[in-house]
Backbone:
């Protein structure tokens, strides 16, 4: 126990921890001290970024300001990054050198960008992670010299929506989508894949299948073929793991993600939880996506309350039935991927807009 009494530490204000803060606001915070460690003043909602690129949203409509939330939830806020954690002494190390003692800790710092490691270095390369860094660099590119020819690397949901957002941005550039060896939206139903393929063709977005690399001369290649020139290279190649969990001795998998079970507790460390892109379930496959991070938030909130009260009857998070995706085509429609179904419609775009705005509204007006 910390010197100032029982303490919960939240590392990061990712989607899952926004769910915890929302629970504190709705039901009252637990009768202990809660400390949030997060360097950013506002959290970007990634689901609205393609629409923002296409001019459907203003920047401020896609962000959640933290100051009003932490104030109302009576959370202490350390505006810096965590760089380490001692699971035995129960201390978090901050980049300032300060150490924070905790009784229970929850980690939702998000994943790390890994485009440079997979593709190579190039000043044109803009990784979707971290999302705030992507927004800053995309804004700079749009303000200085709007790109006329763009390559998007990554055939998953993130890459597809990024291609739609880029294609419908101010300069309406030519867009090439490099889907990788697993093709378009792997893991999604064939029906949804067919709808996505038709929409990409309709928007004149060319699709290549193969692994993208930057060669020694700085040329972007797929296989052995150079496919230049491009003004910008956008990458949505999945989440990488930050280095400090492994370096801190937390149990991680071969990729460096924190190993957690159905209660989101870290393997072998029941006083530490993790969710979102920084974690990986050991019992069932859960995609790294904002959808699952959002749904994991209430489970984290419940288990933090119960752990601090000394209870062992913890809640579990089941991902089944929650792989509900709505792709924004950035042309007034959305594409549904759910179960075995795939469908494009304008009413689906209205539904996605309503869901996204409702999420933002939960944390606004304070």
Residues:
């Amino acid at each position: 126990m910390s010197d100032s009494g029982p303490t919960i530490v939240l590392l990061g204000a990712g989607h899952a921890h926004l769910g915890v803060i929302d629970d504190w606001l709705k039901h009252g915070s637990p009768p202990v001290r809660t400390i949030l460690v997060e360097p950013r003043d506002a959290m970007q909602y990634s689901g609205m970024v393609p629409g923002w690129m296409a001019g459907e949203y203003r920047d401020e409509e896609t962000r959640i300001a933290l100051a009003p939330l932490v104030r109302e939830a009576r959370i202490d806020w350390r505006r810096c990054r965590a760089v380490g954690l001692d699971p035995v002494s129960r201390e978090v190390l901050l980049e300032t050198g300060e150490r924070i003692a905790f009784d229970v800790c929850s980690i939702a710092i998000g994943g790390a960008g890994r485009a440079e490691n997979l593709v190579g270095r190039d000043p044109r390369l803009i990784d979707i992670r971290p999302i705030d860094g992507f927004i800053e660099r995309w804004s700079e590119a749009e303000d200085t010299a709007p790109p006329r020819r763009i390559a998007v690397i990554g055939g998953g949901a993130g890459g597809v929506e990024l291609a739609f957002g880029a294609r419908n941005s101010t300069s309406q550039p030519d867009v090439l989508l490099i889907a990788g060896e697993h093709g378009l939206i792997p893991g999604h139903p064939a029906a949804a894949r067919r709808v996505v393929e038709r929409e990409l063709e309709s928007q004149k977005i060319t699709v290549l299948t193969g692994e993208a690399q930057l060669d020694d001369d700085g040329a972007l290649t797929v296989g052995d073929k150079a496919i230049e020139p491009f003004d910008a290279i956008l990458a949505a190649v999945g989440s990488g793991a930050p280095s400090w969990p492994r370096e801190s001795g937390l149990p991680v998998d071969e990729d460096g993600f924190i190993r957690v079970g159905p209660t989101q507790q870290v393997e072998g460390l029941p006083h530490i939880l993790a969710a979102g892109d920084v974690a990986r379930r050991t019992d069932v496959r859960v995609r790294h996506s904002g959808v699952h991070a959002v749904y994991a938030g209430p489970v984290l909130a419940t288990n933090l309350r119960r752990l601090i009260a000394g209870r062992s009857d913890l809640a579990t998070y089941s991902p089944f039935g929650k792989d509900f995706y709505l792709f924004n085509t950035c042309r007034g429609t959305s594409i549904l991927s759910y179960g075995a179904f795939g469908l494009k419609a304008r009413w689906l775009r209205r539904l996605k807009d309503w869901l996204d705005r409702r999420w933002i509204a939960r944390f606004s007006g304070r």
Summary: The mean pLDDT is 94. The chain has ten helices and 24 strands. The CA atoms of residues 138 and 249 lie 36 Å apart.
